[in-house]
Write a structure and sequence with these properties.
The complex is a heterotrimer of chains A (about 160), B (about 230) and C (about 240).
Chain A lengths: L2 E7 L5 H10 L4 E5 L7 H9 L6 E5 L1 H12 L5 E5 L2 H10 L6 E6 L7 E4 L2 E3 L1 H12 L3 E4 L8 E2 L5
Parallel strand pairs in A: 1-4, 1-5, 2-3, 2-4, 5-8
Antiparallel strand pairs in A: 6-7, 8-9
Chain B lengths: L5 H19 L9 H11 L3 H15 L13 H12 L4 H36 L1 H5 L3 H36 L4 H27 L4 H18 L1
Helix pairs in contact in B: 1-2, 1-4, 1-7, 2-3, 2-4, 3-4, 3-5, 3-8, 4-5, 4-7, 5-7, 5-8
Chain C lengths: L17 H18 L1 H11 L10 H13 L4 H40 L4 H29 L3 H6 L3 H28 L4 H20 L6 H17 L3
The chains are: A alpha/beta (about 160), B mainly alpha (about 230), C mainly alpha (about 240).
Chain lengths: ~160, ~230, ~240
């Protein structure tokens, strides 16, 4: 098996990821790509608690993720790769476009400078442009918080 | 057929408002679960039996909903109350289908009104952003009471609209008995499909699926024996 | 603690539970005003920032963050604690309550209703759910206040992970048991041909809502089937 979902969600691992997508897609590996969390034991402890024991969780830096993506693609597990922002996912896509083909925008919330595109999706114009560039480069990008809600194409978010 | 007089409508409106508030805002005591909302509405309308029958159908639909994060979902509480208002006093076999149809439309509308309230809350917060950043407790209190009031208004309006539609349908729905029966069967069949889908999704391919199957086996056995 | 029951009172897409958490934190932070008024203002502002978790476990975050504020932990670290707590308190709370306790108790209530328990089944559901959640709210707030920044270890060592493991199978079993019972409860009133028709609708509903998910939701399927039926009857089928 392989990485079956690449998701951007600034809440990182939470109910929608674990129950919503995790169960529906029979995920057994979650890879959280976040430089801060990868070096913080107490944060890792909290995020690990959100996940059932039978699901493996790996906390990796962006550099490590870029190195190991090909291994995860062929390690026999159904993986979900998660980043907290657009920039990190864009870098992962650049490192390995074959693994990061489809990108799920699962939840990016309000911050100064961001504008509401969907109730669960706030983006700055710069973030939107980055996503549009990724799509122009061949990535398939949709916004969808749960498997039970309709996906929204990137072009309708502008 | 029970007449929707003010003595019946006013308690239903109060109940619908409370049920609407309970779903998200306060107190989340599960009175908004359709089984509870429907049974109490049936009691208020003088027909507990229909209240339970309507409540169980909507409960099956509600079992398909997983209210996680910001996801949009139907609001079955006020919808169930209005459905009971429509069906009360009739044979459930004949009235359930039309009642459920009304309730499903209201539930979808209820989901949409939840979005409106959430957006309205966000606008209120934006207008007090400076006070929040300055740590003014009074601003937090005002926002909180405003949010609760908006949601109460939402529940009230939804229930009122539902009851008005129930009155219109009671007087004007011209369907023959066979169509009423067939609608009821479609409502029951669809609600069972919704609950089954929810159960399959929650179970995934995990050990939980075996427990679901074991429960289904026990349920079939009980149904045969009962 | 009562304020925690309205923690979703200002739910919105910008801060989610943030303002509700601020409202619940207000009395807990009151003593800080006399000790350090500047810190109090900062703490109140932080308390209403973006936050999201299952409302029934919000007390853990509220207690932990309040204690951290009194212990003078630097603001940015408290902000990271709040962010990190969204994850387990959301996922564990959703597993325990929305995907566990509620369907488990509701499945049992439906079985009870079908078997003739009537009001007792419904009262049992309400009392059991609210008893458990009241106690959980009290426990959460107390554990959060006791643990502060060490709340992660405290949650890990508590009964929560084990309860989540246990409640999932119970929920699956009771819902599994309820569905055939409810189906029989409705359909025995109509006889075999009608029962087979309703079962056909169920099968079609399961298949179509899966194939055409997420566009065709069960609600849309039901309404479409009803409209289709009325049209068929109108044209005389």
């Amino acid at each position: 098996m392989s990485i079956v979902l690449c998701r951007i969600d600034d809440r990182l691992i939470h109910g929608q990821v674990v129950i919503g997508w995790g169960r529906a897609m029979a995920i057994d590996l979650i890879i959280l790509v976040d430089d801060q969390v990868a070096t913080s034991d107490w944060e890792q402890e909290l995020y690990r608690m959100a996940v059932a024991p039978e699901i493996e969780v790996r906390f990796v830096t962006l550099a490590d993720a870029a190195l190991h993506m090909a291994d995860w693609q062929s390690n026999g597990k159904r993986g979900l790769m998660l980043t907290g922002d657009v920039e990190t996912m864009a870098t992962l896509r650049t490192s390995n476009p074959e693994v990061v083909q489809r990108i799920n925008l699962g939840g990016i919330h309000h911050r100064p400078g961001r504008r509401e595109r969907l109730p669960f999706l706030y983006l700055t114009d710069q973030e939107l442009r980055s996503l549009q560039l990724l799509e122009a480069g061949g990535a398939i990008i949709t916004a969808q918080d749960l498997p039970t809600t309709p996906p929204v194409a990137l072009k309708s978010l502008a | 057929m029970i007449e929707l007089s003010p003595e019946v409508v006013i308690p239903l409106l109060v109940w619908g408002t409370l049920v609407g508030l309970d779903l998200v805002s306060v107190p989340q005591a599960m009175i908004s679960r359709p089984l509870v909302a429907g049974t109490v509405a049936g009691w208020l309308a003088g027909d507990v039996h229909t209240g339970v029958r309507v409540g169980v159908v909507f409960e099956l639909f509600a079992l398909d909903v997983l209210p996680v994060g910001a996801v949009r979902y139907p609001d079955y509480g006020p919808a169930t109350v209005a459905s009971v208002a429509l069906g009360a006093g009739s044979y459930w076999q004949l009235s359930l289908g039309l009642s459920v149809a009304l309730g499903l439309v209201l539930a979808m509308l209820g989901g949409w009104t939840l979005q409106l309230v959430r957006r309205s809350n966000a606008r209120a917060i934006q207008s007090r952003a400076a006070a929040l950043a300055a740590g003014e407790s009074s601003a937090i209190r005002r926002l909180q009471y405003g949010g609760l009031l908006r949601d109460a208004c939402r529940g009230f309006t939804l229930t009122l609209l539902g009851i008005l539609l129930a009155i219109v349908l009671k007087e004007n729905a011209r369907l023959d008995e066979q169509t009423h029966l067939a609608l009821t069967l479609v409502a029951i069949g669809s609600s069972l499909a919704a609950a089954a889908n929810g159960a399959f999704r929650s179970s995934g391919r995990s050990a939980r699926f075996k427990w679901l199957a074991a429960g289904a086996g026990a349920g079939v056995l009980l149904a045969v024996l009962a | 603690m009562l304020r925690l029951f309205a923690v979703q009172g200002t739910w919105n897409y910008e801060r989610m539970l943030g303002v509700g958490m601020g409202y619940a934190a207000e009395p807990l932070l009151e003593d800080l005003k006399a000790v350090d008024p500047v810190r109090h203002g900062e703490a109140v502002a932080r308390s209403a920032e973006f936050f999201n978790c299952n409302p029934n476990l919000a007390g853990l975050a509220l207690g932990a963050v309040t204690r951290a504020e009194y212990e003078d932990i630097p603001g940015p670290q408290i902000a990271r604690l709040r962010t990190a707590l969204c994850s387990p308190l959301g996922a564990m709370g959703d597993e325990l309550f929305w995907a566990g306790l509620v369907p488990a108790l509701m499945g049992a209530a439906l079985v009870g209703v079908v078997l003739g328990a009537g009001w007792w089944a419904i009262a049992g559901f309400i009392l059991a759910y609210n008893g458990i959640r009241l106690w959980t709210s009290y426990w959460s707030l107390r554990l959060g206040m006791q643990s502060g920044m060490r709340v992660g270890s405290a949650i890990g060592a508590s009964w929560l992970p084990r309860a989540i493991e246990l409640i999932g199978p119970v929920a699956a079993f009771t819902i599994g048991a309820a569905l055939p019972l409810v189906a029989a409860w409705y359909l025995t009133a109509f006889g075999w041909p009608a029962g087979i028709g309703a079962a056909g609708v169920t099968m079609a509903g399961i298949a179509l809502t899966r194939w055409f998910a997420p566009f065709l939701t069960p609600v849309r399927f039901a309404l479409a089937a009803m409209i289709f039926l009325v049209i068929l009857r109108r044209v005389g089928v």
